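For reproducibility, we list the full input for the NAI complex.
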Amino acid sequence: MNSPVTFVQEGSIGLIRIDNRPVNAISPRVVAALEESFAEFEGRGSLDALVIYCAGRTFVAGADISWFESSDFNPQAYNRLLARIEASERPVIAALHGTVLGAGLELAMACHWRVAERATRLGLPEVKLGLLPGSLGTQRLPRLAGAGTALDMMLSGAMVAATKALRDGLIDEVCEGEARAAGKACAQRLVESRAALRRTSALAAPSPPVDGFARYFTEAGGKPQYPARAAIVRCVEAAVERTFAEGEQVEAREFAALLGSTASKCLRHLFFAEREAARIPDLSESSALRAIGKVGIVGAGTMGGGIAMNFANANIPTVLLDTTEAALQRGLDLIRKNYAASAAKGKLTAEQVEQRMGLLTGALEYTALADCDLIIEAVFEDLELKMQVCAQIGRVAKPAAIIATNTSTLDVNLLARAAGRPERVLGMHFFSPANVMRLLEVVRADDTAPEVLATVMRLAKAIGKTAVVSGVCFGFIGNRMLEVYLREAEFLLMEGADPERVDAAAESLGMAMGPCRMLDMAGVDVGAKVVIERAKAGELPADPGYRAVVRKLFELGRYGQKTGAGHYRYDGRTPIPDPEFSAVARALGESHGIARRDDITGEEIVERLFYPLINEGLRILDEGIAYRPGDIDVVWTAGYGFPDHRGGPMFMAEQIGLAKIAERLRHYADLRGDAFGYWTPSSLLTRLVETRAPLSKWARTA
Ligand code: 3HC
Ligand code: NAI
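The corresponding predicted structure, in tokenized form, follows.
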């Protein structure tokens, strides 16, 4: 196997090249090879300077995250190497390009000089993995850029542009050409000018942030579920108040503690789950992918407009089609308003707004879609209408075009057949607001061609979505599980738990919003219509006691925030407990023969909301609707506000213990009866408990 690191000599300059694709991550093998190459430089006394650069798309983008999972993980060897590099008596220059992240930026900061291509971005994103920079980033960055900037970078995990990094003192030079050549030129200059070597660890300790550390500690203390935040502040405080060597010890201690933390394990799980979700098991790498140069969207409403913005943002020309000039104009006006709001916040320039609006055109005739490579329908949620629209699209679209539906509840197989070319049809289930929400469920219908699926998965990444494949079933992965969660929330309400208690319990687990507030925000009417329609279609129980609360609120015109009342009363967007709602819930409970209880604990609420949801997730796996447990975790964390520090519902299930979940499901079945069948442990849950097999290792064999 070729070494991932090579050393060459060009004149009096040594060059170390790291080549460990895709992102040149630091692994034990890379550390060993780097040590060897550096020793070679040390041994060649005739050389004047050393340049470290990377092959491929980026400089080192971090430590190899899978290395953290192995029992022999220890950053000490790497840290010692960085100290050796910094101690060199001859200049060492880091030549940067791409995304210089984590252990990559830490390497760069141990060098004496940093030159970066203009498009380079730099960051310490460890906090997103529940960690802190463990190779002296917490000590070197404050010395280079100041404590305030270092804290902002490490607590946000965000990347900064090379020009900002230059202003902040993090790098020394921005070059126009290639990093390697610029690095060499720089080395020559430093040698000729006999510049004194600038060792970051020897720089004066930085001043504290202008407004002190208290604010940072308070902010971190408010998020105890993310222990990395406070640990980062403690490390920077040590950088300010103590010697470099002492700071190093503080960082090592904090890093080791975080590595074993549950939050970090969960966040690392999600990092890999999100990337794994993009892989489709039965698809060969060679599936020919189509270029998507132009998109058409039918229906310029809430969703159509939001979807269009995704493509305009990615520089893809998009046609929006609606039935009337007025509807079209409303849609385009709303898009402009959204862009103007981003511009007002300084996120876009006026030129960018115009450039994006310039990519959008309106149309009233289907012929305008004839040259589109992808056409997405987002008209009203009505099967007959959608069948007609799909047929019309099928008639005008070019043969290779892909046709997608944004339906949230209808049968994608039926729509695929209506389009007349089922192999080129799939679902693209965006979430509202579609220009903001990260999740995209890509629905693979029975006849969807592999190449069509692969093309859409790649496109999803290009427009910044986190895509997960789902099979066809009611609600796909996310809403099918949501249904279980919402129906149990309703039973709790009818038994006498107030909305604020139900929400508080869900939020105590870390949900962004409890079920009642969420439905009030999304619209009780929207939820009720789905329940009514799907019950008619036989996909949900027709029993009037089933989802009785949402039906009743709909009947009463309590649609949630938009009508000022739903599960709560609203003062603007602020929910206020409403005795009128309690009276409605009480009456419903009585009329459906549901016994009232006053001993419902927070723990019971959490178990009853989440254990059936997990059980449904296991059914979804068993039926082959989702490929793997991690896909479900991605759906729930990226689209439903499930806490990332718990890794998603399936990862959480494993932490709780599958046997315990099965036992509690049986307990509630005994307590409450099982009229709707969701307390019965799923067959997969039973099998996993019996065989004591880990869910994380589960893979469909069929
Ligand atoms: N370790 C292992 N694999 C990594 C990796 C890492 N740090 N970063 C990226 N990869 C892999 C991905 O899994 C993916 O593999 P796949 O193609 O087999 O699925 C491949 O590299 C490409 O990644 P993306 O699909 O994410 O490509 P993008 O171009 O969209 O993004 C990136 C590239 C900006 C580098 C992004 O991958 C990223 O943000 N990576 C994480 C960077 C990070 O968190 N670094 C810090 C690590 S912790 C650390 O360094 C600790 C130290 O302080 C001790
Ligand atoms: P909407 O009512 O805001 O927009 C629908 C648009 O379609 C309107 O502009 C209407 O004029 C247009 N339209 C109707 N018939 C048409 C036809 N024959 N040809 C062209 N245009 C036509 O609805 P919304 O909320 O945007 O929903 C659209 C779709 O997105 C539905 O299938 C819905 O289930 C789905 N969806 C909605 C989500 C939401 O939260 N609103 C979330 C995910 C999916």
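The CA atoms of residues 405 and 689 lie 38 Å apart. Residues 298-304, 321-323, 327, 378-381, 385, 389, 406-408, 430-432 surround NAI (ligand 2) (CB under 6 Å). Both points were considered when choosing residues for closer inspection.
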